[in-house]
Design goal:
With 433 residues, the chain is of the alpha/beta class. It has 3 domains: 76 residues, no CATH class; 282 residues, Spore Coat Polysaccharide Biosynthesis Protein SpsA, Chain A (Alpha-Beta Complex); 40 residues, no CATH class. It has 11 helices and 25 strands. Strand 13 and strand 14 form a beta hairpin. It is globular and about 65 Å long. The N and C termini lie far apart (72 Å). Its EC number is 2.7.7.27.
Length: 433
């Protein structure tokens, strides 16, 4: 074993390291060794306590067990589990704006309450991603037409007959006015919505929270948020942004990032056009894409899914940018130059259900072979409200590449490449395509 001047410990074989410390009350956890070097916090030799005449007053042994695999490399297990600890993560799901681009679907409901896939609501997607990831401290911020959304959440994610959340909770927080000039405003944007509820993180229930997930309630995708959080913690980033590579056709619809060869975000531009758009091209092989993929998708777009260190988030919203209303167009671009902001690659299916066209196309994509997104993943299911509806009844009908939801009646009809919602009735001689 060798200890270098900067406090790093190197070992050439399996063994144990024993140390003596005078730091009474300090608890030591198992650490792991990777490639023979102590990872995580450096062991400060100056912390070794000494009493009178250099003798230790309190002796404590520090045991650091090394287990090598077949290749002879030590594996760090305890630290990995600590970094995946979902108990220290809270999620905030944003209920979205008025949803004018989805009208008339949003005439009487909030965007996250819009149906998707026949039997689900859009809010079920981030909620299920949280549950499947082990994140069970969830806040949902709503403002427009929230009655339908509140009713669905109460039925689907309660502690009685709905999806169980263990020791977690789901809180729906509606925009409200409070006494004082500042309290007369409704939510002015995504960042302002979180700012108005900053007091949540002064509550005793959130004292152990280290990182905060900011999620949108109108996206369709399946993601392990704890993989995202773990990457954020391992990199030491203050802010991490889930991103996906996009081509020229779609690039101007997103917030785009320029990154260095380690994934650190150097600049951020919200929906650039023309020359500004071309200036945001990057080498996406940095994020793990093949050379061919990188040439087809030379832009890195923000998904609107973020992880913030809790203290950084509160500092940005309350003190650093107290008048900024939006994460994508204000907070993130201004923070990239001051804080360690990192891109996290999500190279899988993701769709923003923000317009009637995207809603239509995302639903029909569910009927493709194979579908780009599937609700039929037993390991990572999408949850929703339980309904006491009978199975669908189908008489003398032909159905091709379609989804028929429960409680429906189909009689002597032809359904092709379509999604039929719950409690639907399609009568004779109808050809739905």
């Amino acid at each position: 074993m060798a200890v270098s001047a900067d406090g790093r410990v190197s070992l050439s074989a399996t063994g144990q390291l024993h140390g003596v410390t005078g730091l009474a009350g300090r608890s030591w956890k198992m650490v792991k060794f990777c490639n023979g070097e102590l990872m995580g916090k450096k062991l400060k030799m100056s912390q070794t306590g000494h009493g009178v005449n250099g003798k230790s007053d309190v002796k404590k042994h520090v045991s650091m067990s090394l287990a090598t695999d077949i290749a002879g490399e030590a594996k760090l297990r305890d630290l990995e589990m600590e970094r995946r600890d979902a108990r220290t993560v809270a999620a905030i799901i944003l209920g979205g704006g008025a949803g004018t681009r989805l009208f008339p679907l949003t005439k009487r409901r909030a965007k996250p309450a819009v149906p998707i896939g026949g039997a689900y609501r859009l809010i079920d997607v981030p909620m299920s991603n949280c549950i499947n990831s082990g994140v069970n401290k969830i806040y949902i911020l709503t403002q427009f037409n929230s009655a339908s959304l509140n009713r669905h959440l109460a039925r689907a994610y309660n502690f009685g007959s709905g999806v169980t959340l263990g020791d977690g909770y789901v809180e729906v927080l509606a925009a409200t006015q409070t006494p004082g000039e500042a309290g007369k405003r409704w939510f002015q944007g995504t960042a302002d919505a979180v700012r108005q509820f900053h007091w949540l993180f002064e509550d005793a229930r959130t004292k152990e929270i280290e990182d905060v997930l900011i999620l949108s309630g109108d996206h369709l995708y399946r993601m392990d948020y704890m993989d995202f959080v773990q990457n954020h913690r391992q990199s030491g980033a203050d802010i991490s942004i889930a991103s996906l590579p996009v081509d020229d056709r779609r690039a101007s619809d997103f917030g785009l990032m320029k990154i260095d060869n380690k994934g650190r975000i150097l600049s951020f531009s919200e929906k650039p056009r023309g020359a500004d758009l071309k200036a945001m091209q990057v080498d996406t092989t940095v994020l793990g894409l093949s050379r061919d993929e990188a040439q087809k998708k030379p832009y890195i777009a923000s998904m609107g899914v973020y992880v913030f260190k809790k203290e950084i988030l509160l500092n940005l919203l309350r003190w650093r940018f107290p008048t900024a209303n939006d994460f994508g167009s204000e907070i993130i671009p201004a923070s990239a130059s001051e804080f360690y902001t990192k891109a996290y690659l999500f190279n899988d299916y993701w769709e923003d259900i923000g317009t009637i066209r995207s809603f239509f196309e995302a639903n029909l994509a569910l009927t493709e072979h194979p579908p780009r997104f599937s609700f039929y993943d037993a390991t990572k299911p999408i949850y929703t409200s339980r309904r006491n509806l009978p199975p669908s009844k189908i008489d003398s009908s032909k159905i091709v590449d379609s989804i028929v939801s429960h409680g429906s009646f189909l009689n002597n009809c032809f359904i092709e490449h379509s999604v039929v919602g719950i409690r639907s009735r399609i009568n004779a001689n109808v050809h739905l395509k």
